[in-house]
Amino acid sequence: MCEARAAAVLALAGLLAAAPVAGQAASDYGAHVARLHGEQQRLLAIAREADRYLPAGDTVRAGALTLIVPPALGALARSSAPLAWQLLEAKFGSKARLVAPLEIILQQRGVPAVSPRAPNAVVRAVTVPPEATSDVVAPILARIGAAAINTSQDSALQRWLPWTIDPRPQPPERYGEVYVELATAPWTAVRSCYAGDIAACGRALGLTVGANPLDSWYGIEDRRRLVDRASATWGLRRLPETRACLQQGDAAECDAALRTVPAEFVSPPLGGVARGLLTDVALELGGHGAYERLADGRGPIAARLVDAAGVPTDSLVRVWRARAFADAPRPITLRRAGAWAAMVWAVTFACLGLRSTRWR
Amino acid sequence: MFRQMLYTQWKWSRLLIVAGALAGFSIPLLSVRPLGDPTVAGYAIGMVLSTVGAYGLLYPLLAGGAGLMLALATWGPDHAGRHVYALTLPLPRWHYALLRFGAGAVLLSGVVAGVLLGTLVAVASVELPPGLRAYPFALTLRFALAAFVAYGAFFAVTAGTNRTAGFILAAIAGLVLAQVMVSAAGSDVGFLVHVVARLFLWPGPLEIFTGRWMLIDV
Question: Within a domain: residue A253?
């Protein structure tokens, strides 16, 4: 199964790589996409056919989580699946059941591969190392399940949150990344947020709602920088307004160039990690049912986060910001105790040298 | 006596010290080069930090290398002269070794001074974007401590006989070999990892070498 899928993916990647990427009209693109889609379906059919010749595995279920495993991995699957399901249920509540269409296939080097049970199941395969225990495998299963649950989010939430809500606690380094972004990003709202302006944090995170996100999230002085940074991504280079904006710094021309960008393409100044951690904080503060409230909510993202967290936006952002500052990376990892320890070790080594017996 | 000892050690190791000081002076200057480009400094601060971090790996290497080379240079001529010079002096062995250690430590400060000067010049030569700070003194202090630890360790090894050094090297090689054999036999026992962890993690002697060495950071 794996070889067939890998061949399918490789073939598709080859087609993509070989495809011309510049100078095509929209109709050419459409035809190209249709051809690729047809090719994908053909290759998947080949992969499914190949799957039929693999032996059927054992099915291990915990809640709505389904694992298909070779008999040799049955014990590992039976101990890992309940742990993974607990993690999913704790984070996603009743929405954890959205994992049901997924079949996770466990495989291991040297153990014959098995085929998925349901022909139309969403299949993910995990290769586990020989010495893996349920403590290692369960979080991986939970992460895969979480990714499947995340795909059912509505488009507004997915657009704002380019991040997989993970059942595992986030490591402090993630908050450290946010601190670095807060400290170094050039956008006005981010700089104000770093300085302590909580309302500016809301703008930087894309929580404020306006007619145009550009006006809500980016200051006048950010416009030229935004054009400069994103002109290639948004295809603004060909516009005369872009040239006038970049060459003469004309704010009106910068605005004119940016107005050609559809609103849904504009991202908030702070990146996906920052927004993901804000969501994580909201779910943590909200406790039981927080994810359901977030996922089922409608309306502005800020309101949905408030619903999920059960606290006002300001309080939520304040907690998020405090965590980022608490986990700020330390540039020079030299503690007072570490410095003393180094001195003691150096002197100890020197004393060993003094005790040498070269000429006795 | 100490001045004479210092002078002779300076003569033996001045090329090493000058080379170390030059290297220590250059690393900070090279690490801040991206900040000289206004486009990069204003837009790609992440790249600036990555470059500073990548060059940061060179500080512990230089500290370890300087400690090693200076320790070798400190005892090299004594070993070559079969310790006749030392034996002619009216000193006990410990006193002589202490003088040698002190002289070497003073000379090591030349390399440290190179790093300090380099960091100060590097920081003064660029305009830091908002949100970034420079840490020339903390970095130099850490470099000095790391170099001092390395010098002390290698001084202790080189102060003994070649046989002592051989024993130490053989012990290290034996550990690595034993680990390779144990792993080859299919065992999961990984004692070498624990030994390395004891050395490099708190409160191990080489903990000072680990972690981030950032001249410029948030």
Answer: yes
Residues A122 and A237 in one domain: no
pLDDT tens-place string over residues A38-68: 999 898 888 777 777 777 788 999 999 999 9
Determine the residue among B82, B208, B209 to mutate to test chain A binding: the one whose Cβ has the most chain A Cβ atoms within 10 Å. Answer: B208
Cα(B161)–Cα(A360) distance, integer angstroms: 11
d(CA B200, CA B208): 8
Kindly state whether residue A354 falls inside one of the protein's structural domains.
no
A34 and A159 both lie in a single domain: no
Flag whether A315 is in a domain: yes
- Residue B163's contacts (CB-CB under 8 Å, 6 or more residues apart) are none
Quick one: A178 and A294 in the same domain?
yes
Contact A174, A273 (CB under 8 A): yes
Q: Which of B60, B66, B63, B41 has its CA nearest to residue B51?
A: B41
Between the alpha carbon of residue A279 and those of residues A109, A143, A170, A295, A346, the distances in Å are 37, 16, 11, 11, 48
Instruction: Identify all chain A residues contacting B212, using CB atoms and an 8 Å cutoff.
Output: 329-333
Q: Which residue of A has its CA nearest to B101?
A: A350
Best residue in A354, A355, A359, A360 for a mutation probing chain B (most B CBs within 10 Å)? A354
How many domains does the structure of chain A reveal?
Answer: 4
Q: Do A163 and A148 lie in a common domain?
A: no
Q: Are residues A148 and A160 in the same domain?
A: no
Cβ neighbours around A237 below 10 Å, total: 12
Q: Distance between CA atoms of B13 and B72, rounded to whole angstroms? A: 9
Domain that holds residue A296: 155-213+269-331
Residue that the structure tokens 């298909």 belong to: A68
Tokens representing B62 are: 């230089």
| Helix/strand/coil for A103 | strand
pLDDT per residue of chain B (218 residues) written in tens, 0 to 9:
889 889 999 998 999 999 999 999 999 999 998 887 766 665 677 788 889 999 999 999 999 999 999 999 998 888 888 778 877 888 888 898 999 999 999 999 999 999 999 999 999 999 888 788 899 999 999 999 999 999 999 999 888 877 777 888 888 889 888 888 888 887 777 888 888 888 888 888 999 999 889 999 88
Same domain, A262 and A275: no
A145 plus A162 within the same structural domain: no
Q: A-chain residues within 8 Å CB-CB of B78? A: 358
Residue A117 sits in the same domain as residue A86: yes
Is the Cβ pair A341, B208 closer than 8 Å? yes
